[in-house]
Amino acid sequence: MLLPAITALAGGELKIVYNVGVAPLKFEDTASRAVGLFPDLWQLWAQKSGKQIKFVRTASFKESLQLLKDGRIVGAVVSFMDITERRQMERELLQAKEKAEALKLESEAMAPLCDKLVQLAEDFDFDSIQKIVGDLADIS
């Protein structure tokens, strides 16, 4: 979320109050300057409008709101991102993971039974069965 809060134009300069967020939206470079998509948009706006801007960092969203409540800033711009699709994919991924874990448990439970069936098949005397079937065929 972004909360640059706009202070009153003082001496022709518009102050943009921000708190550091997550790259690439908003963060600081190694010189502690505001960078990212949102600061870039404000810089572009300043270029197009001919207004001077200055970024003022706050420690938190809460501090930016307090500046607004105290009347030290006159407005705020907040942006939100629709994460409906992302949440749906997270739910589907979780369901797939749960299903995979259940299948793994089932396969682990079935492994000894499969081993036993293989052992029985290996121990089974097919030659004797074929002889008995052949003998039965001769009788009829």
Q: Can you tag this structure with a few keywords?
A:
single chain, 140 residues, alpha+beta, D-Maltodextrin-Binding Protein, domain 2, 2 domains, four-stranded mixed beta sheet, 6 strands, rod-shaped, disordered N terminus
CATH structural fold name of the largest domain: D-Maltodextrin-Binding Protein, domain 2
CATH architecture of the largest domain: 3-Layer(aba) Sandwich
Give the overall silhouette: rod-shaped
Q: Percent helix among the residues?
A: 40-55%
Which structural class best describes the helix and strand composition?
alpha+beta
Query: So, the CATH homologous superfamily of the largest domain?
Result: Periplasmic binding protein-like II
What letter string, H or E per element, gives the SSE order? Answer: EEEEHEHEHH
Main beta sheet strand tally, sense and closure:
4 strands, mixed
Residue windows where pLDDT falls under 50 for at least 5 positions:
1-8
Rg for CA atoms: 35 Å
Cross-sheet strand order for the largest sheet: 5-2-1-6
Q: Averaged pLDDT, please?
A: 79
Oligomeric state of shown chains = single chain
- In the CATH scheme, the class of the largest domain would be Alpha Beta
Number of helical elements: 4
Q: β content, as a range?
A: 15-25%
User: Quick one: how many beta strands?
Assistant: 6
First-residue to last-residue Cα separation: 87 Å
